[in-house]
Specification:
Blueprint: E1 3-14, E2 17-26, E3 29-34, H1 36-42, E4 47-50, E5 55-58, E6 60-62, H2 67-74, E7 79-80, H3 89-102, E8 109-114, H4 126-133, E9 138-142, E10 147-150, H5 152-158, E11 172-175, E12 181-186, H6 188-203, H7 210-221, E13 224-232, H8 237-245, E14 252-258, E15 277-285, H9 305-310, H10 326-336, E16 342-347, H11 350-366, E17 377-380, H12 388-395, E18 398-401, H13 403-413, H14 420-423, H15 429-434, E19 440-441, H16 452-461, H17 478-484, H18 487-492, E20 510-513, E21 530-535, E22 538-539, H19 542-549, H20 554-562, H21 565-569
Parallel strand pairs: 1-4, 6-13, 7-8, 8-9, 13-14, 14-15, 15-16, 16-17, 17-18, 18-19
Antiparallel strand pairs: 1-2, 2-3, 5-20, 9-10, 10-12, 11-12, 20-21, 21-22
InterPro entries: Amidohydro_3, Metal-dep_hydrolase_composite, Metal_Hydrolase, YtcJ-like
Domain Amidohydrolase: 55-540
Keywords: Hydrolase
């Protein structure tokens, strides 16, 4: 259907025409942008639709997520115990008790979101979990996504009590003095292997895609129309194909295949249209997570009440926290450089970033690709130094930053975990933009709830959840922050020709807002309401999407609404300084 769409204002993110009165859409694509008369001339006889929204923008792009796995981990029948729902360890244990009371005794249980720093508790070992759950199979995933904790029943199911496995490449298992496993696993290869029996039990239940459907709804409710899967493996292909094929499917997905999978470099084929589902690159992990204590930093973790409660050892983490040696990194990149995939490297600490940039420079240089449009990515980069951003720009590396790290953990980072000069400047937005980089923002799947607008607020105000101001000189502008979740994020996914701005020829993917982000007080950007989204020229009906899946029953869908963006993510706004 041909349609002319209007709103209080249309913010295009196109520098040639920043504002418009109307946008004309035909066959899912934009054919005109400008005045109502311009659009009527381009599409005579088109239906006119006034959204009633204060502002219409290009749909937000979340360039680093994990939709299916996040849904499986956080949504029913799993339990989300992140600090925004369970602020203390006592609250976590209360959630454990609730789950025990409301489920059959033989049902495996999965919990996601333990955070030793915010919940002030050391890693729970198998004996500690056994004391709560007895001989039930239980998996707790760390909120960083880099750790898992299981009961002895899970280790027995895996056959690992008597025959503990060796550590996989890129991960390791916690061990007792005698070499037996203690139920703690760190980094994706180990954490996922240990959690597999419980995740498989959930996936083979009566509604295996229920969590994924609900997480798609959560992402869409935040205004997101395109995102990625940064922990893709072939076993997830059918799930993504099913979700993409449903009526009113709300998200375009770009896949990043885990480098630990044997087929990570192989081509991707699917009957699903490429504009809805495509493989974009390969995902690799350089170091760990700041919140777990295994980030490769040159600055020391401090010896404070904060780090002691979380079980983080003081001192300089250093290069020993790298998941791969430099030779291994070079070999991984060399193995895939000829395939044309975009490489996406998780790297939080400054040492990890240095080593990744060294590896990028070596391998790209060896193949004369430094000046090519390779767009090799570096993810998170919370502990980056100022000098590292110009270096990224010099080799064409593309940074995707996580304002959520600063927003939720800023008070702990600044003086609790690291010295203020390091922790206070965590997520150096200003340095990144000043280097001329196409900076994008993300929430990293279930690590924090999907909140593009709150990410923008954090970057612009440099105020964390408590309202405390940290390193104001690192603030971004409103325009930069909006670009980080629109045109720049589309560029990071290699899709700027399709999405990210309202321009002729691109997909008609929009988000309706109840306020103009440029017009509100900056510390209120996160409170702007999302009224709905459009995908390919049609307004998304999330209820129809959920109903079409035959996965989500009414009770579960109602519970999802309690996890909605306003409820879980809009913490009290900070007061202006």
């Amino acid at each position: 259907m041909d349609v002319i769409i209007t709103a209080g204002t249309i913010i295009t993110m196109d520098p040639e025409r920043t504002r418009a009165e109307a946008v004309a859409v035909s066959q899912g694509r934009i054919v005109a942008v400008g005045t109502v008369a311009d659009c009527q001339k381009a599409l005579p006889g088109a239906t006119r639709h006034d959204t009633g929204a204060a502002a219409l923008l290009p749909g937000f792009v979340e360039p680093h997520s994990h939709p299916v796995l996040s849904g499986m981990a956080t949504m029913p029948p799993a339990y989300w115990i992140a600090p925004w729902f369970a602020p203390t360890w006592d609250d976590v244990v209360a959630a454990f008790r609730t789950a025990i009371a409301e489920t059959p005794v033989d049902q495996p249980l999965a919990f996601f979101g333990f955070d030793g720093l915010l919940q002030q508790h050391a890693d729970p070992t198998a004996p500690e979990l056994d004391a709560i759950f007895g001989d039930r199979m239980v998996m707790v995933f760390g909120n960083s996504g880099h750790t898992s904790y299981v009961t002895t029943a899970v280790l027995e199911h895996l056959g690992w009590v008597k025959n503990p496995p060796t550590d996989p490449v890129g991960g390791f298992f916690g061990r007792n003095a005698d070499g037996s496993l203690n139920g703690v696993a760190t980094e994706i290869p180990a954490a996922m292997a240990q959690a597999a029996p419980v995740l498989e039990a959930i996936a083979t239940g009566p509604h295996p895609l229920q969590g994924a459907v609900e997480y798609y709804v959560l992402l869409s409710s935040a205004g997101i129309t395109s995102t990625s899967e940064h922990t893709y493996k072939t076993e997830l292909k059918s799930a993504y194909e099913t979700l993409a094929s449903l009526p009113n499917s709300p998200l375009r997905i770009s896949l990043y295949h885990m480098s630990t999978e044997a087929d990570c470099g192989e081509p991707f084929t699917s009957a699903v249209p490429e504009d809805m589902l495509r493989k974009q690159g390969i995902k690799l992990w350089a170091d760990g997570s700041p919140w777990v204590g295994n980030v490769a930093m040159s600055s020391p973790y401090l010896d404070t009440d904060v780090t002691r409660a979380a079980g983080i050892a003081p001192g300089i983490p250093g290069e020993k926290m790298m998941n791969y040696t430099r030779d291994q990194l070079d070999a991984l990149l060399e193995a895939h450089v000829g395939e044309g995939w975009q490489m996406a490297f998780h790297a939080n600490g400054d040492i990890a970033i240095d080593i990744v940039l060294d590896a990028f420079t070596t391998v790209l240089g060896r193949h004369n690709l430094i000046d090519s449009d390779h767009r090799w990515r570096i993810e998170h980069i919370g502990g980056a130094r100022a000098d590292q951003f110009p270096r990224m720009a010099s080799i064409g590396a593309v940074p995707s930053m996580g304002p959520f790290q600063f927003y939720y953990w800023g008070d702990l980072l600044d003086g609790g975990m690291f010295e203020p000069a390091v922790g206070g400047s965590w997520q150096r937005f200003r340095d990144a933009f000043d280097a001329g980089l196409p900076v994008s923002f993300h929430n990293d799947g279930s690590v924090t709830p999907p909140t593009p607008l709150l990410n923008m607020q954090a970057a612009v105000t440099r105020r964390c959840a408590s309202g405390t101001l940290h390193a104001p000189e690192q603030a971004a502008t409103v325009d930069e922050a909006l670009r980080a979740h629109t045109v720049n994020a589309a560029f990071a996914l290699g899709r700027e020709h399709e999405i990210g701005s309202i321009e002729v020829g691109k997909f008609a993917d929009f988000v309706e807002l109840d306020a103009d982000p440029y017009a509100v007080v900056p510390d209120k950007i996160g409170a702007i309401g999302v009224l709905g989204t459009w995908l390919g020229g049609s307004r998304v009906d999330l209820g129809e999407f959920a109903a079409a899946s035959h996965q989500v029953d009414d009770a579960a869908f109602a519970q999802l609404r309690t996890y909605g963006v306003p409820a879980c993510c809009h913490l009290p706004a900070a007061t202006a300084s």
